[in-house]
Amino acid sequence: MLNIKGLKVKLEEEDKQILKGVDLEVGAGQVHAIMGPNGSGKSTLSYVLSGRDGYEVTEGEASLDGVDLLDMDPEERAAEGLFLAFQYPVEIPGVGNMTFLRTAYNAQRKARGEEEASAAEFLKIVREKAKDLKIDAEMLKRPVNVGFSGGEKKRNEILQMAVLEPKMCILDETDSGLDVDAMKLVSDGVNALRSEGRSFLVITHYQRLLDHITPDVVHIMANGRIVKSGGPELALEVEKNGYADLMDEVQ
């Protein structure tokens, strides 16, 4: 599904190397988690995969189902099946949730050569997805994320994910700023979308999210590289002992 080899990336403005040779392979239907201390390059990896400006790939490759992502514009990557859930979802005043979702949905259908959905067809799709995720229909009538709580913003992104049905979902610290109840609701939404044809890359600081979204593989990232990988027990080890012992192991 997602294949990253020797990926090196620097910040364009500062000429600073952030990723220093990332190797990662996420198979179809798998959930991988990335943990690591601040400044290790976790969010940079998500930004580069999604096509955010300000970063220069100096070496390496990244592909989704064999298709090179790095030569694509962000919207092309989205049409190819890549989705990024932000750590801090932005508010878009004046743009209704339904309008935003339908525009994104039809843009991707058009990019794949498919017929656009009518307003009635799309309304049925969204209502079904919202019901499955236990999302209040009132959220659909409001401007995108405006006046939303932290939990509502994250649940709104899960709804976007459900509507767009991506192949590869990247969650950049989705648990950031969530209380226990909100994190459980978001996790339930993610688990409802798990399937053999959809993979997840979950970036998080804390093991507590992985109590609800059980990963197949946990990676530890430090100094721009993945330095150790293992099963869910690796996240428990980090939660108990921190990163210091792991860093000593790999030096």
Automatic annotation (TrEMBL):
InterPro entries found in the cross-reference section: AAA+_ATPase, ABC_transporter-like_ATP-bd, ABC_transporter-like_CS, FeS-cluster_ATPase_SufC, P-loop_NTPase
Domain (ABC transporter) ranges: 2-248
Sorted UniProt keywords: ATP-binding, Nucleotide-binding
Molecular function terms, GO-annotated: ATP binding; ATP hydrolysis activity
Keyword Nucleotide-binding: yes
Family the entry assigns: Belongs to the ABC transporter superfamily. Ycf16 family.
Full protein name: Fe-S cluster assembly ATPase SufC
